[in-house]
């Protein structure tokens, strides 16, 4: 009697997620696990002929902001069409719990659904995801802004009192005990920007005690980049936990090339035995709140502040709640219409339209993007904000853009190396057991793509499109994308940190 499998993928070129080169093999899947690789005998209820296609572990987006999105729009189409099978939410300090503080903190960057019972802590958030599964898996970071806002009763523009700090420590500990993979900060945003290094170290100690990592949108990505890298690495070393530098880059022309130094600082920390890595999205524009750019002096005179400088013609409106007709315009068009300097035009926009305006802002160097990408400390994340009609295309195109433009067309990375940075590397760093690898016993999160044709179709002008050349995406053994179409399967689950 031949064993009958649920699903067999035949004749794929398998990139197993360890960085090993592709080999021709079949993959058998039963229920939610890979049960066999190599030459698989027998039949299956479903067989896919993957001749000409690469099979890789599903991509792990280490830099997601879809904490609420996975619940309010559980198809999370922008993610699954580009091969993402796990998102790590809670980045840049924006975390999902406590629920009430999260709803206030998050509203600038994503829709905060009110159809769910407010959850208790991160245990409650992860249980809510399990009870309302989206199309992909969700792991969470504890967000510093959110716990700070909850402990201090709003945006405290001051250090916490000892009681408030103790309360924050308890919330971080709760998140870690519930299975969060670490804690994030966003030290340019409200209210994280009011915290000093000591406060962050104290909270990171709770993370270190439970084998999690410290993830940071650093205090400065402009003129003060190198000091910020020093602070970030120092926080990890003081607390005793690993560090992930978020969206590693240098913003503003005067800072281009500085990533060579920040990469050396990462290498030096690694040489001391510190676990320091970074992530990146493959574009020369960032995307964030217009309010935060103004607050950090992006359009003013002088140094340009913590988020670097961009000129008004480099700023595109992505999402303007209540005024979608303004989406796609540049800040420069308002400068001209109102005859105001850039900063004043931005302030008038915010006073007329509210603080929840999202923009894309150019200001990075393509050479820096390539240098960071080629460095072995870098893994991949989208930082996607799929809001409004003109979101930054990274929300839809990050992974196929790496595989098409940077692997095939420009040769910046070998394909097996790119796959490692999207799968096995993040699974190891973020403590996701049996994910990010194709081998018998691992969970069946798999993406199939054609290395010769895979490409992103999301542009700044017309962003909301999935890729070409990526026909199948499987989450926990179920197709979520088949023949390029979303199946609407809710195959995901909440993931909790591997305590080992
Ligand atoms: Zn960020």
Explain the overall architecture:
The chain is an alpha/beta fold and 500 residues long. It has 3 domains: 5-57 and 436-486, Urease, subunit C, domain 1; 59-284 and 364-429, Metal-dependent hydrolases (TIM Barrel), CATH 3.20.20.140; 285-360, D-aminoacylase. Domain 3 (Dna Ligase, domain 1). It contains 16 helices and 20 strands. Strands 1, 2, 3, 4, 5, 17, 18, 19 and 20 form a 9-stranded mixed β-sheet that branches. Helix 5 packs across helix 6 (162-178). It is globular, with a radius of gyration of 22 Å. The relative contact order is 0.16. The mean pLDDT is 96. Bound molecules: zinc ion. Zinc ion binds at residues 92, 186, 217, 246-247.
Number of helices: 16
Helical content stands at: 25-40%
Considering the protein shown, what is the CATH homologous superfamily of the largest domain? Metal-dependent hydrolases
Strand % is 15-25%
Short note summarizing the structure:
The protein is α/β, with parallel strands linked by helices and 500 residues long. The chain is built from 16 helices and 20 strands.
């Amino acid at each position: 009697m031949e064993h009958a499998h649920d699903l067999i993928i035949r004749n794929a070129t398998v990139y197993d997620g360890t960085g090993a080169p592709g080999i021709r093999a079949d993959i058998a899947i039963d229920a939610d696990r890979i049960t066999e690789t190599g030459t698989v005998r027998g039949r299956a209820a479903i067989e896919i002929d993957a001749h000409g296609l690469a099979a890789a572990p599903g991509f792990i987006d280490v830099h997601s902001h879809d904490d609420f999105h996975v619940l309010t729009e559980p198809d999370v189409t922008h993610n699954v069409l580009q091969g993402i099978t796990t998102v790590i939410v809670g980045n840049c300090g924006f975390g999902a719990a406590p629920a009430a503080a999260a709803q206030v903190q998050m509203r600038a960057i994503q829709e905060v659904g009110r159809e769910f019972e407010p959850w208790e802590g991160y245990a409650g958030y992860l249980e809510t995801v399990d009870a309302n599964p989206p199309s992909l898996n969700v792991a969470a970071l504890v967000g510093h802004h959110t716990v700070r806002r909850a402990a201090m009763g709003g945006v405290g523009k001051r250090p916490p009192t000892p009681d408030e700090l103790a309360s924050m420590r308890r919330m971080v500990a709760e998140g870690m005990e519930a299975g969060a993979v670490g804690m994030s900060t966003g030290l340019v945003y409200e209210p994280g920007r009011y915290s000093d290094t000591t406060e962050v170290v104290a909270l990171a100690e709770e993370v270190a005690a439970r084998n999690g990592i410290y993830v940071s949108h650093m205090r400065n990505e402009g003129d003060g980049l190198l000091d910020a890298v020093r602070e970030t690495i120092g926080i990890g070393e003081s607390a005793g936990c690993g560090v992930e530098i978020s969206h590693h880059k240098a913003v503003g022309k005067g800072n281009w090339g500085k990533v060579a130094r920040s990469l050396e600082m990462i290498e030096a920390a690694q040489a001391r035995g510190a676990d320091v890595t970074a992530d990146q999205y493959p574009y020369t524009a960032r995307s964030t709140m217009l309010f935060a750019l103004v607050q950090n002096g992006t359009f003013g005179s002088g140094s340009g502040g913590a988020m670097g400088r961009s000129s008004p013609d480099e700023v595109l409106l992505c999402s303007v709640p209540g005024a979608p007709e303004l989406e796609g315009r540049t800040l420069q068009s308002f400068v001209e219409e109102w005859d105001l300097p850039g900063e004043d035009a931005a302030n008038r926009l915010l006073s007329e339209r509210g603080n929840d305006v999202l923009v894309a802002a150019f200001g990075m160097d393509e050479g820096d993007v390539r240098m960071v990408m080629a460095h072995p400390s870098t893994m991949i994340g989208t930082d996607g904000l799929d809001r409004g009609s003109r979101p930054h295309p990274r929300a839809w195109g990050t992974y196929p853009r790496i595989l098409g433009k940077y692997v095939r067309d420009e040769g910046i990375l070998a394909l097996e190396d790119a796959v490692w940075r999207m799968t096995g590397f993040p699974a190891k760093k973020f403590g996701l057991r049996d994910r990010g690898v194709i081998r018998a016993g691992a969970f069946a999160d798999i993406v199939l793509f054609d290395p010769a044709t895979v490409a992103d179709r999301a542009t700044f002008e017309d962003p909301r499109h999935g890729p070409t050349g990526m026909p199948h995406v499987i989450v926990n053994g179920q197709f979520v994308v088949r023949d390029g179409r979303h199946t609407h399967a809710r195959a995901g689950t909440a993931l909790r940190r591997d305590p080992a």
